[in-house]
């Protein structure tokens, strides 16, 4: 695989060393058996924690979260095994609110997830409020010594295997987005049940959660009451570029598979790569990969250089990288012909794996709205 992008000025020596170490680890440990995705994710979290890579998924007190490292790790894992990327990413997204806004007590949980000893979930989406976070209906009402939460969350990654969730609920300080708060909710909390396990196109642990009067102490509140929307958007600012990085990793794998197929000798002589039309498709694929990488690592570098918000850059990175990856993978599958749709082939698996990335953490049309508001402001 072409690694020349690591020489771009976005990266430092430590990033190149991290990339090389992770590449060696992936070669020795991936892919894992996906037959039981719950078990596979538990194994991956423990292994990534033991190897020290999950330390990059969050930041302790006094530490800075390095978004370039997050992106490099997600890109590399996704290229080798998208389920490994999922396992890593959810440790970061799930505890992103604690990394950015958590108290010392809450950070004790963060150290568990960074070590791979606990699994986290991010409970934001609801049945009636997918992309519209401001319409969150789950209620958090004052109770003696804390809060009582009632409502439902759906399409929650790691639902059913997580040890704790960051959950967003309406505390009512103001209408809409200004009346939400964030809470740290252990999975064994009384009143929390897994109402449904959800099967999707590329299987991973996913569930609908029901909160029936879940009582949490005051210490579970992340930040201040009414700051939930700000917290959620701050977390997504950091992690949206990393979704683009995961898509980039899948696109690189698809390009590599396409190049190998194009160079393979054919029964009648020559190769697919001898044909100019195939060369044109390969050129388009390579162009989209490099453009996606530039947008992803620009967003990550901008955040690492101290920008308080990178909403526009993050939206551009996620939108372009995920849409481009879908196109690159589709082109790779087309080049493989019938073998491309054969179950178990690399490009067939990528075709299923990429689709969800254009939806979660803000669907593509949401990113377009974010970008448009930025350029119109």
TrEMBL record:
- Keyword RNA-binding listed: no
Q: Which domain of life is it from?
A: Bacteria
Q: Which residues form the Acyl-CoA dehydrogenase/oxidase C-terminal domain?
A: 226-376
Q: Which residues form the Acyl-CoA oxidase/dehydrogenase middle domain?
A: 121-209
Q: Which UniProt keywords apply?
A: FAD, Flavoprotein, Oxidoreductase, Plasmid
Pfam family example for this protein? Acyl-CoA_dh_M
PROSITE patterns linked to this entry: ACYL_COA_DH_1
Concerning InterPro entries, the annotation shows: Acyl-CoA_DH_CS, Acyl-CoA_Oxase/DH_mid-dom, Acyl-CoA_Oxase/DH_mid-dom_sf, AcylCo_DH-like_C, AcylCo_DH/oxidase_C, AcylCoA_DH/ox_N_sf, AcylCoA_DH/oxidase_NM_dom_sf
Q: Identify the stretch annotated as signal peptide in this record.
A: none
Which Gene Ontology terms cover its molecular function?
acyl-CoA dehydrogenase activity; flavin adenine dinucleotide binding
**Names of required cofactors:** FAD
Q: Does the keyword Chloroplast apply?
A: no
* Protein family according to the UniProt entry: Belongs to the acyl-CoA dehydrogenase family.
Name it: Acyl-CoA dehydrogenase
Q: Which organism is it from?
A: Paracoccus pantotrophus (Thiosphaera pantotropha)
